[in-house]
Amino acid sequence: MKELVKNVLRGLHIYHPLQSGYRGIITLLLINYYRITYFKYKGTGFSCNFCGICYERFVPEFPSMNIEQAINSNEVIAGFGENVYCPNCRSKNRERLIRAVLENELAIEGKKILHFSPEINLSKYLKIKAKEVLSIDLEPEFYRPIDKEIIKADATKLQFDSESFDIVIANHILEHIPEDEKAISEMCRVLKRGGLAILQVPYSEKLKSTIEEPFINDPQRQESLFGQKDHVRIYALFDYLERLKRNGFMVKILSPEHLQAYKKYAIQEKESVILCFK
Ligand SMILES: [Zn+2]
Q1: Domain boundary among 36, 56, 85
Q2: Ligand 1: distance of its center to the CA of 107 in Å?
Q3: Which of 120, 162, 195, 258 could disulfide-pair with 254, CB 3.0 to 4.6 Å?
Q4: pTM for the model
Q5: Is residue 153 domain-shared with residue 46, that is, in the same domain?
Q6: How far is the CA of 119 from the centre of ligand 1 (A)?
Q7: What is the CATH number of the domain that holds 176?
């Protein structure tokens, strides 16, 4: 029955793999409801850097009890909370964060970008601003409504020449990939020298080491261990930085204090942005 519902939603192009399960479907329906009633959120204090509308609050998203346990006990910075979705354009806090950094700290005009599992608003923005954007995913059919030209690619075996992109964006992707270091190494290989990768993941500053079961295939257990049905780990921040460095990147952290100016976009309070240079 569950598969049937998913297949119908996929056929209608309203099922998104990163929002798997009934909770995701309910969230999607709710967000569409908020879109109709978004004027209730309008006000001052926050604004959306995608659609430009000002709000006194954004749409919240709270985790289920199972997920909450995994996230809270490990103090994971994971994207839930009071102000998550834009009631109008549906941008998520993690998309608004990347746009704010790209727009204010880097110049993407004239750049060639590789975008993993494209988020709808961020993808549109990149395509307007950058010279060329290539979207990829292991299951591209799910992302066709976002980008008709998206192509299939396995992050651990990218089919692109070395040093062929100026910027690589994989926003909350690596925590899904069993062999994440192979993927990091590939992302570094296809990046030009002097290029930049933005590879945000959910992470914990409390954990001393990453907790992971890379080849687990048990959605219920994944949800209670890692906080999402298709995650295979929770990164300890220190360990994540080590994985990036030993696969070719130099890292620079933009701290929450540095990102203070972007709080008006309702980004996560405690999240840092990890810039990965080659
Ligand atoms: Zn918006």
Answers
A1: 85
A2: 22
A3: 258
A4: 0.88
A5: no
A6: 13
A7: 3.40.50.150
